[in-house]
Amino acid sequence: xxxxKPMGLGPRPVPxxxxxxxxxxxTSVAAxxxxxxxxxxxxHGDPALDLAVLSLVxxxxxxxxxxxxxxxxxxxxWVALNGFAIPPMGRLTWxxxxxxxxxxxxxxxxxxxxxxxxxxxxxxxxxxxxxx
Length: 132
Description:
By secondary structure, the chain is mainly α. The chain has helices at 20-42, 47-62, 70-84, 96-129. The longest helix has 34 residues, at 96-129.
């Protein structure tokens, strides 16, 4: 039998996600800054390193966001990657095999970050609510 108990009016056990436009703004700034830094450090080298770093940015941005923000986060990271890390620089191009894979990798990273953060928040909230 389920017994309902009021949880109180105190602080919510699970934090509210950050607003989607804020997540996208932070993602845009971080992605462009990191691609610029990597371009200066490795002189327009291997785009796989840029993809790995931008996947990490997408996952970290996803930790505070709603799941609905994941496609936009992945798209913004892909634009920074495609526009400034992959030749020709400054032009968006689409190579179906490569860019679809890169976009899928960035989307998977953003979704993984969001889902993992939600699970960890829910687990922590469950531990706070239940008492030994």
